[in-house]
Amino acid sequence: MLPPFADYCQLIADLPQRFPFIQTSTLQVYTIGKNVAEVEGQLVFADGYVLDVWELLDLSARTIYKYSYELDRHGERVWWYDPMEHPENPTLQDSFPHHKHVHPDIKYNRVPAPDLSFTRPNLPFLIAEVETVLQI
Asked: What is the rounded CA–CA span in Å between residue 95 and residue 36?
């Protein structure tokens, strides 16, 4: 289960202090209904890396209902994560429905994403992954 909504908002607000290699954050969290909130924006890193973040939160269940995380570098897609179901692909079943799109043939080349979840914050893991790309 995600932390209470106010704590989740604070976690997002604190990301630049917690991860000082984030150059800028435009992440915003806002409610769009009684039990629904949205997280959207970008985290900008060195060397032209930008992480686009979109999450739809179910506030009553304290879960992430849907998400999309996309890493670009100078406008070119590096990878992206999404939970679109692909039951026909047995290699993705270990982390169903979470998966990552990677090169080559990034649209169709998918690998399991066992570190992503609907019930815990994904951003710390994703930022740590960007950190390894930056080789910090």
From this structure: 25
Rounded Cα distance, 118 and 82, in Å: 11
- Rounded Cα distance, 9 and 12, in Å: 5
| d(C-alpha 105, C-alpha 130), whole Å | 21
| pLDDT digit string, tens, across residues 84-95 | 887 787 788 888
Cis bond before residue 97 (omega within 30° of 0): yes
CA 2, chain centre distance (Å): 14
Provide the 3-class DSSP secondary structure of residue 110: strand
- pLDDT of 43-56, one tens digit each? 999 999 999 999 99
Token pair for 26: 């435009």
Strand partners, 76: 73
For the chain, which residues make up each domain, given as ranges? Answer: 5-134
